[in-house]
């Protein structure tokens, strides 16, 4: 058996459009038919939307769906800092962090996050170990003519 995730847009950010109340009800119905996790996003459905973009701006929707629908949630949206992601998880705002644009900017974000947060989970692949030594100075003996 595989887990079933469903991505929803919690609000379309337009007047009289889809809203968080409707998303909570949809999540309850999806849970009732066997959905395991709701991937909570927002927007993307109207060119007229005025979206208040900022760090973690969609996380509040994931938190609400999680609490009011009693279903696991994933959150997205300008989650760029490992400490920010860790805070979201530790405070129960969401069950999983889902990254997209941040992984386009930094494909090694998960490895960097692990290092920044204490190196608990993984190690860099052997062929990338040199990339982890950013703070080592170059010595004159390392320079070639």
TrEMBL record:
InterPro entries: Aldolase_TIM (IPR013785), OxRdtase_FMN_N (IPR001155), YqjM-like (IPR044152). Gene3D superfamilies: Aldolase class I. It comes from the Bacteria. Its cofactor is FMN. Keywords: Flavoprotein, FMN, NADP, Oxidoreductase. The keyword Lipid metabolism does not apply. This is Xenobiotic reductase. It comes from Pseudomonas syringae pv. pisi str. 1704B.
